[in-house]
Amino acid sequence: MTEGAVRVGLVQSRAPATPEAALAHLEPLVREASEQGARLILTPEASNMMQRRREARDLHLADEADDIVAQGLSRLAAELGVWMLVGSVVVRSGRAEDDRAANRSLLIDDRGRTVARYDKLHVFDVDLPNGETYRESATVRPGDGAVVADTPFARLGLTICYDLRFPQLFRSLAKAGAEMIAVPAAFTVPTGRAHWETLLRARAIETGAFILAPAQGGEHEDGRATWGRSMVVDPWGEVIARRDDDAPGVLIADLDMSAVGRARQAVPSLSHDREFLPPR
Question: Which strand (E) or helix (H) includes residue 226?
Answer without folding.
Answer: strand 225-227
